[in-house]
Amino acid sequence: KVMFTSIPRLHPADCADRIRSGSAILIDVREPDEWTEGVAERAALLPLSDLNGPRALWKPFLEKAASREIVLYCRAGGRSMIAAKVLAAEGFRTANGGAFSEWADAGWPTVTPPSS
Questions:
Q1: 22, 72, 87, 108: which could form a disulfide with 80 (CB 3.0–4.6 Å)?
Q2: How far apart are CA 78 and CA 10, in angstroms?
Q3: How far is CA 103 from CA 12, 65, 113, in A?
């Protein structure tokens, strides 16, 4: 069921207003060592490995995000599509936001996250 779930693929311009208004949430599903390259401003940092594993970070996040659209991105768009399909199968409204580089190239502000 998960693999056959249809997920929209959005360019940053397609969803920027929804993210800025708070009706959609942007999530970076890359792993923590990849975040040192920078992350999209306003993105929640929730690795795919935690979504597919213990959900220590994802569970409390999803409890608060149930009514909002979830837009996910990663390095190239593959992992964000996997995460979007998993979450859509669980009843969340999701979209694949593609690659981090697309967000940066579209002029979305990027930040360096604090080191843990």
A1: 72
A2: 13
A3: 6, 22, 16
The vertex-42 CA angle with 109 and 38, nearest 5°, equals: 55
Q: Would you state the structure tokens that stand for residue 38, as one six-digit string?
A: 């920078």
* DSSP-assigned beta bridge partners for residue 28: 45, 73
**Residue 116 predicted with pLDDT over 60:** no
User: What is the pTM (predicted TM-score) of this model?
Assistant: 0.93
- The H-or-E segment that residue 12 falls in is helix 12-21
Strand segments (E) across 4-90: 24-28, 39-40, 44-45, 69-74
Percent of the chain with pLDDT over 70: 95
